[in-house]
Amino acid sequence: MAQAIEEWYKQMPVITRSYLTAVVVTTVGCSLDIISPYKLYLNPLLVVKHYQFWRLVTNFLYFRKMDLDFMFHMFFLARYCKLLEENSFRGRTADFFYMLLFGATVLTGIVLLGGMIPYLSESFAKIIFLSNSLTFMMVYVWSKQNPFIHMSFLGLFTFTAAYLPWVLLGFSVLVGASAWVDLLGMIAGHAYYFLEDVYPRMTDRRPLKTPSFIKALFADEHVVVARPGNVRFAPPPAEDVLQG
């Protein structure tokens, strides 16, 4: 069993493995009182006035207490982060890293701006960790790139992947979780999808071209894939949301 888990871990692509490791180490460290969550959460005043810039990163690494909700999000993080990096971003590690950086920046900007809007500031002030939202963004991007995959939710009903974010949003509401967290991830995911996939087809311009200094950080493999057209939109076999 331990060997199988080790092999599974080693076979993960680099970004997925690094992010998942950082998340698990951070969350376990907080659960054991080795790390204080108060040193990690997003606090604009502490970032600006006390130069605690690490909070812009660490708020994406903590998933609150280790319970069923934590396991639920770890499943989606490991699954859809891995699927994106191995398929849509295969051989494009720098582009995948830039997607996550873009998503984290959009989410942070929304929370900071939302905190300045009357009547909404109180709701946004409660969002101090954006790890769940970043995970949801990856789910949203994957669903947009693979809309025809047939899925089932807990074996109760079937749907296509295009509706996966909405199904998960409805599930979050049913279990009493905040809809804001998932909605933020959907907003960030749609912003990336529009600027990366839709806008370039409309204008022949690509505003989210990965900067050269980020490409220099990663030695991407050159992958040649022979395929007619865009096969991301061809309907593959059905799969289960939670069983994969």
TrEMBL record:
Q: Which GO terms describe its biological process?
A: endoplasmic reticulum unfolded protein response; ERAD pathway
Localization per record:
Endoplasmic reticulum membrane
Q: What GO CC annotations are associated with the protein?
A: endoplasmic reticulum membrane
| Membrane-spanning ranges | 96-117, 123-141, 148-168, 174-195
> Keywords on this record?
Endoplasmic reticulum, Membrane, Transmembrane, Transmembrane helix
GO MF, one annotated term: signal recognition particle binding
The principal location of this protein is: endoplasmic reticulum
- Which Pfam families does the record match to this protein? DER1 (PF04511)
What topology does the record note for this protein and the membrane? Multi-pass membrane protein
Q: What does this protein do?
A: May be involved in the degradation of misfolded endoplasmic reticulum (ER) luminal proteins.
The family assignment reads: Belongs to the derlin family.
Output the PANTHER family linked to this UniProt entry.
DER1-LIKE PROTEIN, DERLIN
What protein name applies here?
Answer: Derlin
Q: Which gene encodes it?
A: LOC108980781
